[in-house]
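Consider this:
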Amino acid sequence: MAHATKHIGFGVTVSTSYEHPYLLARRFSTLDHLTNGRVGWNIVTGYVDSAARALGRDAQIDHDTRYDIADEFLDAAYALWEGSWDDDALVVDRERGIFTDPAKVRAIHHAGEHYRIDAIHIVAPSPQRTPVLFQAGSSDRGRRFAARHAEAVFTFSPTPEATKPIVAEIRAEAVRWGRDPYDLRIVTSQSIVVGRTRKEAEDKLADYRAHASVEGALAHFSSAAGIDFSRFDLDEPIPYVKNDANNSALEAITKRSAEVWTRRRIIDQMVLGSRMPPFVGSAVDVADHLQAWVAIADVDGFNLPRTVTPECIHDFADLVVPILQERGLFKREYAAGTFRDKLFGHPRLREPHRATAFRPQNLR
């Protein structure tokens, strides 16, 4: 896909619970070279027991400990990406047979609670060095992790009013880490069914629902929330019980929702498979809806889950994007440079982001 495109960024999801920092750092540096600086990492810690069992564990590591491990994982990766090579370490002198200046390449010595590394990063500095850092977690512990590390944060909540305090907490936590709160791009999920008219959109939704699996929707959301919703009566309120799955998904329909959620409500609103109730309307309706979310919740953008592909992407691009462009809310052309250039206007992480502490000049 990178070969066939010029501007699209690629956010690759990899779990810190089932990787090693050295191997991950090597892989992402290679990808950053191959994409000319268009790779990002969606940092997750995992949330389903089946994945843990598949990879040799009896069950998930508990929720907050997974984030403690991820904090150390990121520090080890930063040391490799940011600290192992100087920018001018590459010589590439074919006549003298010199590839690098060895004085400008150094081994990383990391000895932590969960990882040990004593090695040189095996890949020369890539265009971004550290990939663009995405993180999807709105639980209390996830927000602290996001504020420390993430550049773009995915949030999940059914209303802009419920999302607003989550966004404010993430930005306030970023300030406590010495960061500009708007150095974080906060993205919320929106399931969209759009038509040329509202009636056309409603007809599409009816058609989609006729083919959707209620059992599949419940199973999908159960896996995220860590609760078997089939054990609840249709109109029985769903409580919040902290567990080792995706706490933010469960918080969104319990602690952070002004409305009572039941199994009937989940079936009715999440039947298309998304964790968000679909917004259904004309292109103008959708544009108004998204603009209101930005104004109320202080979010920077939207993650659009698929309904029926590729038509849901075509519908949004053909019908909604032109209206957003007319309102000055969506770009008309791509910016030049790396993925980070396009999002932030600079190719590499800037201070005071945590990664910059591992640069050689900051370690001396």
